[in-house]
Write a structure and sequence with these properties.
The chain has 120 residues and is mainly α. It has one domain (4-118). Helix content is 72%, strand content 0%. It has seven helices and no strands. The protein has helices spanning 4-11, 18-42, 51-58, 63-75, 80-86, 89-98, 104-118. Helix 3 (51-58) packs across helix 5 (80-86). The two termini are 28 Å apart.
């Protein structure tokens, strides 16, 4: 579990204390490992078929899952993932923990998280 301070730091993208960074990294690793395990146990479809599945596969620790999600995203409309993520703030938060850098995923997650929280 993350403390209130760590959750706030993740949301505000201000993780610069080493102890906090390690705890958030451990949370992200644990969460993505669980997601990967569930995908494998459920024997999910080999190809991504919808935005929810794409979001889940992007959080997997296996490159094959991530590649399939990216292939789906290339064919989707530009905002399709963010629109879905905005309805799933837990996914947005996980993306913020797993993608802490200035990547497209991180910015998409930040915008989707605030959209979900503000209800816009």
């Amino acid at each position: 579990m993350l403390s209130n301070e760590e959750i706030t730091a993740v949301i505000n993208r201000q993780r610069n204390q080493s102890e906090m960074t390690n705890t958030v990294f451990e949370f992200a690793t644990y969460s993505s490992t669980i997601i990967t395990s569930v995908i494998l146990l459920l024997d999910e479809y080999p190809d991504v078929r919808c935005s929810s599945q794409a979001l889940t596969f992007l959080l997997s620790r296996l490159a094959i899952h991530q590649d399939k999600a990216l292939a789906w995203a290339e064919l989707a409309t530009p905002n399709q993932l963010q629109e879905r993520m905005a309805k799933l703030p837990g996914f947005a938060f996980l993306f913020l923990t797993i993608y802490p850098n200035d990547s497209a995923e991180s910015f998409m997650a930040r915008d989707a998280f605030w959209q979900a929280m503000l209800g816009s």
